[in-house]
Amino acid sequence: MSKYHISTTINGEPAEFLCEAQQTLLDVLRDELHLTGSKEGCSSGDCGACSVTVDGRLVCSCLMLAVEAEGHSIETIEGMAQGQDLHPLQRKFLEHAALQCGFCTPGVLVAAKALLDRNPNPTETETRYWLAGNLCRCTGYDKIIRAVLDAAAELRGA
Amino acid sequence: MLSYTAPSTVEEAVRILAGASGPAKVLSGGTDLLVQLRSGRAKPDLIVDIKNISGISDIREQDGVFIIGAATPGAVIGECEALRQAWPGVVEAAKLIGSTQVQGRASLAGNLCNASPAADSVPALIAARATCVVAGAKGRREVPVESIPTGPGRTCLRPDEFIVEFHLPKRPPHSADTYLRFIPRTEMDIAVVGVGVSVTLDTRGVCTEASVVLGAVAPTAILVPEAAAALVGHNCDETALSELEQAARRACKPINDKRGTIEYRTKVAGVMARRAAVIAYERAEERR
Ligand SMILES: Cc1cc2nc3c(=O)[nH]c(=O)nc-3n(C[C@H](O)[C@H](O)[C@H](O)COP(=O)(O)OP(=O)(O)OC[C@H]3O[C@@H](n4cnc5c(N)ncnc54)[C@H](O)[C@@H]3O)c2cc1C
Ligand code: FES
Ligand code: FES
């Protein structure tokens, strides 16, 4: 069995792994690199639980082959907090109780951060559309939206 | 055993495809292909990732012609202000594909070559009279976008061929396009009907050129010349619009499925064609 040797950057650190052609980036993150924050909800691009960024672009890691990561820079939920310091989005999710079971939360946080990195002052509608690919079966979304908008306000220093 | 390769030139990619001993699949964004790999619907021996080819994910403008690399993701298309000015309909169609995450990868070539009758960017590209450059063992050919899909899940491309880029022709003044789709939800669904309309007006606001394309109502997206003819010579008046609506309905050959019956799709196609034409006309008027 021939494996592919892949060199990438994950959460700012150089990372190398061996994988097979059919393995998804999500498979490798979870099963080889033990970065289990990214979740597998559907494996078909529908739920967003596996969201990561690749060179700053939000993608579903279940819809990308691990071999495609060669030479690219990946950010996962594990890179969001700085040591013990939670990212403002993470703090606001706790304050607003924007999660229940938490399964969707890593993906929602990564997606929300990608939004705020691009647009520090999104409207509620923009936020809802941006997160339309992140399904949550617990919260009804409203608290998620409040938390994201509140975090955006804090990050703007408002 | 699946293999993967990511050539860095078009010629190398063609050589690999032409020399493949088993079934090979070209990979752009993977948002269709990975789902099919997982479900077992696609069973290639080899995946040829074209994203390492330079220019394949970029947009350039040359003498008014926009050239969009085959693998350019929807998000990049949506961010190109010059393209949006020239071809608002093509851009809104590309941006409708999937979620933000899917937009980060999904390409025009994948949307076209996956050959879903409901593919959103395809009616808009055809209405724009876009062409694509196909590379293969016999060299390159430039063909109209509508010549690629031949039926659901099927294209006319040979195993050694793939799409390198799309060309959107130079725009005459006072031109604009639109893409509208009807879905039962507000986001994340597959078109019940999609309509692409492109118009050019003269200095008095009379339509001199039009194209109307319907998606999701036949095995492939269809150009409806009768619907376009209804617009030409008119001012977007009621006569033109009701003729357009009827021509659009007559062209439909839809199927019954969970998203809509034949009757429903046919009715909605007329309504959507009318709305799309009005928007295209208004946009072209703003440019007058
Ligand atoms: C959650 C989700 C939502 C979606 N929503 C929509 C939607 O709203 N509207 C819509 O139209 N589609 C939708 N899709 C389908 C898909 O995202 C689009 O069809 C997309 O444009 C495919 O592009 P890709 O680059 O990802 O294609 P890929 O998966 O890379 O390829 C698709 C097919 O085209 C072939 N191919 C790719 N590139 C080339 C090339 N250059 N030359 C020849 N053949 C090639 C591949 O071999 C494969 O057969 C959705 C998919 C998902 C997962
Ligand atoms: S697991 Fe990737 S989108 Fe659901
Ligand atoms: S908190 Fe349970 S799925 Fe979102």
Structure description:
The complex is a heterodimer of chains A (158) and B (288). Chain A has 158 residues and is an alpha+beta fold. Chain A is 33% helix and 16% strand. Chain A has two domains: 76 residues, Beta-grasp domain (Ubiquitin-like (UB roll)), CATH 3.10.20; 68 residues, [2Fe-2S]-binding domain (DNA polymerase, domain 1). Chain A has a five-stranded mixed β-sheet with strand order 2-1-5-3-4, sandwiched between helices. In chain A, a hairpin with a 2-residue loop joins strand 3 and strand 4. In chain A, helix 2 crosses helix 5. Chain A starts with a strand and ends with a helix. The model of chain A has no long low-confidence stretch (mean pLDDT 97). Chain B has 288 residues and is α+β, with helices and mostly antiparallel strands. Chain B folds into two domains: 166 residues, Uridine Diphospho-n-acetylenolpyruvylglucosamine Reductase, domain 3 (2-Layer Sandwich); 110 residues, Enolase-like, domain 1 (2-Layer Sandwich). Chain B has a five-stranded antiparallel β-sheet. A four-stranded antiparallel β-sheet of chain B has the order 11-12-13-14, with helices on both faces. Chain B has a three-stranded parallel β-sheet with strand order 1-3-2, covered by helices on one side. In chain B, strand 8 and strand 9 form a beta hairpin. In chain B, helix 5 runs antiparallel to helix 8 and helix 9 packs antiparallel against helix 10. The N and C termini of chain B lie far apart (58 Å). The model of chain B has no long low-confidence stretch (mean pLDDT 96). Classes of the chains: A alpha+beta (158), B alpha+beta (288). Chains A and B meet through strand 4 and helix 3 of A and helix 2 and helix 6 of B. The structure holds flavin-adenine dinucleotide (FAD) and FE2/S2 (inorganic) cluster (2 copies). Flavin-adenine dinucleotide sits at the interface of chains B and A.
